[in-house]
């Protein structure tokens, strides 16, 4: 990874850590559906922009002057966008629309320049498709800047969401073109895993906010162990569960990692607010279970799509995933009134899943 790319990833990890500010608006022990939607949308904004730049770098970036200038320009816009994040998304929607649309345009121009430089027709078609998707998303995003302020916020938010969803999932329409020009999958997975590592690092740092006057509580210890176990689980999947030499368009990898990133960003906030008695116990139980489902099922989806030789993904492994999650849901519902019991059970559940993954999925019969 080039130094500029590492700096780029650090800025994005910082931005995602700021996005969780929208989840601190708790009302009657719950986080409203609107605030959750805003959190998911802002996550998707940064994830989509980062993904397009990562895909471009994997296929075309050669550390030339033009690419470096584009990277620095995009980095400046991302820094501005990160600073625009506030708990009240409606107050900064204009900044988001302007910044994201500009970033989409910038990346689209990069793809058009590559289309001009490339000789292979398949690569030209791919560049045209991705530039077209980004161009459409940018136009919709810019259009939201001119919507009447009298329109309901939810309507303006919905139109902006169309812009982001178009950019995020539009490439699925061109999956055949993407498969004909596959990325360097080994480098691609490495870049994603390094970014996920940064998110886990941000999650670990979160525990420091709960340490008061150097007094370590059971929550601090259990929280730390929970994040470490999640990271170890992800690392086992990434290192041992997938075939890094596969020729693939990597669309499953890209989209599943959005949900993995959401889970990693969301869980620390839920646990911290639960410890501070801001969240209702049963709401915490439901949201933590949903977050774990996002994490584990997307790990399974990756191993299913890019499975390494010798691993066991038979139906009984999927059954274990469902059954163990249901057991956790029942336990969490019963224990949510007692935070230490709840967190201890969560830690043991994650440990059991890690051991099961290692012994019965990654090393079956050994």
Automatic annotation (TrEMBL):
Entry's transmembrane regions: 30-52, 64-82, 94-113, 125-145, 157-174, 195-215, 221-237, 249-272, 278-297, 318-336, 342-362
Nucleotide-binding listed as a keyword: no
Pfam entry (one): LtrA
Keyword Aminoacyl-tRNA synthetase: no
Keywords, alphabetical: Membrane, Transmembrane, Transmembrane helix
Family annotation (PANTHER family): BLL5714 PROTEIN
Name of the protein this chain belongs to: Low temperature requirement protein A
Source organism of the structure: Lactobacillus selangorensis
